[in-house]
Amino acid sequence: MIYPIVIEILQTLILLAAAPAFIGWIRMVKCWFQGRTSPGIFQPYRDIAKLFSKDVVLAENASWIFRFTPYLVFGATVLMAGIIPILSVDLPFSATADVIALVALFAIARFFTALAGMDIGTAFGGMGSSREMTIASLAEPAMLMAIFTVSLVSQSTSLSQMVQVVAHGQFILRPSLAFALLAFILITLAETGRVPVDNPATHLELTMIHEAMILEYSGRHLALIEWAGMMKLFIFAVLGIALFLPWGVAATGVLTGIPAAFLFLIVKLGFIGIVLVLIETGLAKMRIFRVPEFLGSAFLFATLGMLSYFMLE
Amino acid sequence: MNLAAQINSLLAALILLTAFGLLVQKRMYGLLHIFAWQGLFLSVSTAVVGYAAGTHHLYISSVLTLLLKVILLPYILHVLIQRLQIHKEIETVVNVPTTMLIGIALVIFSYHLTAPIRELSTLVTRSTLAVALATVMIGLLMMITRRHAVTQIIGFLAMENGLFFAATSATYGMPLVVELGVALDILIAAFIFGIFFFHIRTTFDSLDVKQMAKLKEED
Amino acid sequence: MTFSPVGAASSSVLLFFLLAAAALLLKRNQRLLITAGFSLAAVASLLAVAAGGLVVWSGLIHKLILPIGLPDLPFHLRLDPLSGFFLTVIGLLGFFVSIYSIGYCRGFLGKRSVTYLVIFYALFMAGMLLVVVADDAFFFIISWEIMAAASYFLVMFEDEHAENRKAAFLYLVVAHIGAIAILLSFGVMAGFAAGVEEGFNGYTFDAMREAKFPTGWATLAFLLAFFGFAAKAGVIPLHVWLPEAHPVAPSNVSALMSGVMLKTAIYGIIRIAFDLIHVFPWWWGAMVLVLGVITAVMGILYAVMQQDLKRLLAYSSVENIGVIIIGIGLAMIFTSFKLPVLAALALIAGLYHTLNHAMFKGFLFMGAGAVLHATQERNMEKMGGLIHKMPWTAALFLVGCISISALPPFNGFVSEWLTFQAFLFTPALPNALLKLLIPLGAALLALAAALAAACFVKAYGVTFLGHWRGHNPLNPPLLRGTKGVVEVDWFMRLGMILTAFSCLALGVLPTVVIGWMDTISEQMVGTKIAASAGAFGWVWLTPVSHERASYSGPIVFLGILAVVCATYLLLHVRRTAIHRAPIWDCGFEKLTGRMQYTATSFSMPIRRIFGFLFNIKEQVRITPPVPPCNKGGVGGLHYHLRVRDRFWGWIYEPISDVSFWVARKVGMLQQGKIHIYLIYSFVTIIILLMFFR
After folding, report:
1. Looking at chain B from residue 147 to 176, which residues have their Cβ under 8 Å from any Cβ of chain A?
2. Is the peptide bond prior to C409 cis by the omega test (within 30 degrees of 0)?
3. Cβ neighbours of A187 in C, within 8 Å
4. How far is it, in rounded angstroms, from Cα C354 to Cα C545?
5. Residue C339 vs residues C276, C280, C516, C604: alpha-carbon distances, Å
6. B107 and chain A: CB distance < 8 Å anywhere?
7. Rounded to a whole number, what is the largest CA-CA distance in chain B?
8. How far apart are CA A13 and CA A18, in angstroms?
9. Is-contact C166 C174, C-beta < 8 A?
10. What value does the CA radius of gyration of chain B take, rounded to a whole number of Å?
């Protein structure tokens, strides 16, 4: 009984602690690819620490929603950390939410961020909120279709069960999962605001989406939002691992599997970081009205996955 | 499902993917590359079926496909595009998302259509028949929705790919003589198309098939 | 004397009729009328809740035959779990809205008499309660008409605006076309339920339940009834009256109309399909499902385009009706393929969403009413920053927005999640075509849910957040104290607070609610799901099995709350210095409230992406500069945007043209000369004599 709770706490801590390192790794690899000197894998930690130590400057017009949002976004993200099986499928809180509910937890964080963007009453905030909500609503059908396809294989939307079936069941080549993975990658790029949908590094007025909403944040509020954003990318990465590459995650009641699972996790995350950098370096940010086509192809992939499950498997 | 059937399913899925790729790709060279990939998957799939079913003449078809559809035809088209200096953006009659949705509908329709055949057949490859039919239909859809003559010939060749795939998956391939004949036909068709392109261009100064509307008699 | 559900339900209805009569007596003292009248309405609603709740909980069927009605057809009443459930829904929202109305109607004091409002409010409530307990066709139609007529007068309440009269007329027309279809449907079914010699017996629902209908006639009856009920529920393309009528009614009435009146139509569909006909081919369900999906997506897309707060809410009701109908359609498909457990899941999902939508939509209309009450404004483009003036309303409205956007841990999420779960079971269907097509419906439902979130970010953000966009933009009244945008009174707040709590409770404790609702699915599709849904205690909701999917409202709620509190405390151990500073203006220094994103600009990307579904006219006009301005500048930019329903042009305008044409032709008979009328009579007599000699 005590063992699953230990795992639960362990993996929540891993998520909290490793998310900035993951971002640091991505930035580092990106620097290498672009022939620059990188600030090191630990730079995000220093950024967050710096922000925490600074005072908060609030816009005159900001209401309680603006101040409450960072805490809520952080809270929702941390809650998700305890749900996704990162190291072991034996988690007491894993049943709190299945994949669909997990997507909804992202949605609540996004809902409040968008409200906070509108709260201060600048044109930028509204612009960011409007675009973010539009892109999110286009990503949602593709996301659901991808989930549908994946759940066809495991007959479940509960994450522990999905990992269990794929990782510890018989290995079969599944085109449907490959399609779903493609769709999932495109959706991840859109949902976490990466190139080519949004550029996390820019503050150029007309291309901002996520940054436009959080433009007025400062101090510990900004630190919480940034940290939650890093965790969001990390969560999408481990969600992708759980859905598509779950090999190595420890089964129920196997204590010895944990260190191996941890090593697997690091290798997989390192690999995902490199893939992400390759995508980001290879593509340019697209116009906002090209995003529907981008997400349309995500939907196409997911649908083809669903169809090929029924037709070919 | 044994491994060969699994690999064949995977290749079928890839062929379907390339069919959709042809439908949504906007650049001429991109289109050619996707077409070449489709040929490659088709050739590998033919070899896999040949191995699984023990019918060795399929190896010959496979090599033939590889030579013809992956190397020769894309090369000819490539040369054609360069000679004709076709601008690279492809104009479409219907916008891309709508085409995509119609494509999905066609896949579902062909699945529905092939359901009775699936019941009857006992081959391991029978489930890929729906994909083959869908590839044919998507090729036709591509011919309908594109304006450019070169894209139309690619649509035509994609249809032929679908038919070939249907033959391998439904009956383990046609007799070798027939296949050789078809391959030769395709080659000749490609040449004739090429000659026609030059004629169309000298007549209309464009390869947009919309121009052909001018040929009809004025009222 | 023990508590009997039938007694409680009847006394609730009687109380409402009594209230309608007593309102005339209390006409002199308007203030007393409002307080006493709506308090009585609240008590009567509570009685209905008690009756309904008990019936659903016990699962028993109570019947009563009243000694009034037609000679051969006395009024039949029946309380079974299904009607008990709707009784609860109507009563619960009726209770909250009645409390709210005490405060809201005080706004009319000194402006207009509220006597008629109280009378028709009471009749409206009574009519809705009677609709769900009626057990014969005749009584059902009478109750249906009481409800329709009363709501017509309520929509007309502020009849000095031509717009309101037009909306009410449109509503009346659509409601009656629907009612005719329902009546015809009952006629068809009654014809098979009993022979001619048995008189009116075929018109009781009991006789219809027993009857066997030939497939063709059953289809006709169902299609007619579905058409009639769809017109009432606002299923696209029969939705046009809804966004006209709901916004112009007083807000407490809009809350009831959107929250529960539409649900009586849902009740009708379920009653006819699952209870009266109960054997049907799968394509009925497929048709209902397709219409539900179209309604959900189109409804929310229209909602996103709106600038009028109440109109936006009305269109969003269309969307939610679509979601409910999706649940019912899935349940019908599963039933016709003999998959009762899945049918139960889908039906429970639809009914749960019915309950949820009643709560949050009623709630949002109450909130919109509070805003209207305080600002006298429905146009969002002229609002903004109300959170500083109306903190209570703002906080409560936010709860409604979260609930309707299907975000955990509030109630909207639970029912949409259940609907998705029902969708995920469609691979179990034996029909290959359905298997491949239904997932696309699920994707569209996801689109609708996500667009709903966008829509309510817009509604909330533009109305309550940012700066005031009002009439005098350069002089934002927020900082000075405006002409009187103040928080609403405690009755209105109390009504909204109670609704907010019910939204939270329905979201956090779904297992309890589903356990309570279980008798309905047992009655309708013959299976319970509570045993599996609550197999792991009240904390975990596991619709079919825990390996399939699970959700825990309490843990999500408490988990987020705990992390938020912990983070807040950790960060406030040290010091909590906060400086206030002007917003970043890019060095422009002249930012005004007019430069914020507006409702129109917020929805621009969505309008552009989905524009082909609408009839959009966009105009930008530039006026020349006024003399003191320097050369080359512009005097003013005028942006005009009109988004119209395509269905008007496609369906309604042709129909109205044809009916006007027919009316004109018929009108030619009217000559105004007495001898011509005599000729008509004479010719008629001659013809009749020729044929019936």
Report:
1. none
2. yes
3. none
4. 24
5. 19, 14, 22, 44
6. yes
7. 64
8. 8
9. no
10. 18
Report chain C residues whose CB lies below 8 A from the CB of A140: 446-447, 449-450
pLDDT in tens, A246-284: 887 777 666 777 888 888 899 999 999 999 999 998 888
What is the tens place of the pLDDT at every residue in C109-151? 888 888 999 999 999 999 999 999 999 898 999 999 999 999 9
Dihedral Cα A303, A305, A308, A310, nearest 10 deg: -80
Judge whether C612 is closer than 8 Å to chain B, CB to CB.
Answer: no
- Locate C414 and state its tokens: 């639970």
- SS3 state at C249: coil
Question: Would an 8 Å CB–CB cutoff place C437 in contact with chain B?
Answer: yes
Percent of chain B residues past pLDDT 70, beyond the cut:
90
Q: What pLDDT is stored for residue C480 in this prediction?
A: 41
Tell if the CB–CB gap between C443 and A58 is shorter than 8 Å.
no
Mean pLDDT (chain A, rounded) = 89
Residue C433 touches chain B, beta carbons under 8 Å? yes
| Residue B14, pLDDT score | 92
Task: Measure C304 CA to nearest chain B CA, in Å.
Answer: 22
User: For chain A, what's the residue count?
Assistant: 313
> Least CA distance to A307: which residue of chain B?
B108
- Rounded Cα distance between A238 and C212, Å, is 56
Report, as an integer, the average pLDDT of B105-118. 86
Q: How far apart are CA C344 and CA C58, in angstroms?
A: 18
Residue C466 has pLDDT above 70, yes or no: yes
- The domain tally of chain B equals 1
pLDDT reading at A48 higher than 90: yes
Contacting residues of C for A180, CB less than 8 Å apart: none
> In which domain, by residue range, is B31 found?
3-215
Query: pLDDT of C413-431, one tens digit each?
Result: 999 999 999 999 998 888 8
Closest by Cα among C601, C378, C377 to C482: C377
Predicted local distance difference test score (pLDDT) of residue C562: 92
Q: What confidence score (pLDDT) does residue A254 get?
A: 66
**What is the nearest CA distance from B216 to chain C, expressed in angstroms?**
33
For residues B175, B180, B181, B182, the Cα torsion angle rounded to the nearest 10 degrees is 90
Judge contact between C303 and C316, C-beta under 8 A.
yes
CA distance B97 to chain C (A): 11
DSSP 8-state secondary structure symbol assigned to residue C277:
I
A neighbour chains, 3+ CB pairs within 8 Å:
B, C
Give the total number of structural domains in chain A.
1
ipTM: 0.95
Worst-scoring range by mean pLDDT, A101-115, B29-43, B92-106, C329-343? Answer: B92-106
Q: Which domain, by its residues, includes A268?
A: 2-312
What is the average pLDDT score of chain C? 88
Residue A304 to residue B20, Cβ atoms within 8 A: yes
Q: What share of chain A is helix, strand, coil (3-state, %, to 5)?
A: 75, 0, 25
Q: Which residue of C has its CA nearest to A303?
A: C440
B6 CB neighbours in chain A (<8 A) are: 172-173
Contact (CB<8Å) B10/A293: no
Give the pLDDT mean for C178-184: 94
Tell me whether residue C432 is exposed, middle or buried, using C-beta atoms within 10 angstroms of its C-beta: 0 to 12, 13 to 18, 19 or more.
Answer: middle
Residues of C with Cβ-Cβ distance to A82 under 8 angstroms: 559
DSSP C155-189: HTSSTTSHHHHHHHHHHHHHHHHHHHHHHHHHHHH
- The residue assigned the tokens 């179990």 is C428
Q: Which residues of A touch B128 (CB under 8 A)?
A: 311-312
Sign of CA dihedral C554, C560, C561, C562: positive
What's residue C530's pLDDT?
Answer: 76
Q: Which of C420, C463, C613 to probe the A interface (max A CBs under 10 A)? A: C420
